């Protein structure tokens, strides 16, 4: 019984995360300012990261968790670089 509950809850979580992914994509495409687009990109990578984690739980694979960790690291650095570019107009001084 508990395996069925886990499968069902993971399925629902993945559906809700997919809806969040679509909402972030819409905000990234329609964002009125560059700051809105960067925040949407940040939300997009966080939701994609969580989707990878749920896939790792569902498939019982360590590879998804490693990919999620790598995505978190690169997404954080990318967000910082884009924020610095918006503030100063250049990334590398």
Automatic annotation (TrEMBL):
Keyword Hydrolase applies: no
TM spans (from-to): 6-26, 38-57, 63-87
Repressor keyword on record: no
Subcellular location: Cell membrane
Pfam families: MrpF_PhaF
Mode of membrane association: Multi-pass membrane protein
Major location category of this protein: membrane
Keywords: Antiport, Cell membrane, Ion transport, Membrane, Transmembrane, Transmembrane helix, Transport
Family the UniProt entry places it in: Belongs to the CPA3 antiporters (TC 2.A.63) subunit F family.
Name listed for the protein in its UniProt record: K+/H+ antiporter subunit F
Organism: Devosia honganensis
């Amino acid at each position: 019984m508990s395996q069925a509950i886990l499968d069902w809850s993971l399925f629902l979580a993945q559906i809700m995360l997919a809806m969040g992914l679509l909402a972030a994509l819409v905000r990234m495409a329609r964002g009125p300012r560059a700051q809105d687009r960067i925040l949407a990109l940040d939300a997009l990578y966080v939701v994609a990261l969580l989707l990878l984690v749920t896939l790792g739980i569902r498939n019982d694979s360590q590879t998804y968790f490693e990919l999620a960790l790598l995505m978190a690291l690169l997404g954080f650095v990318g967000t910082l670089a884009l924020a610095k570019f918006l503030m100063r107009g250049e990334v590398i001084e």
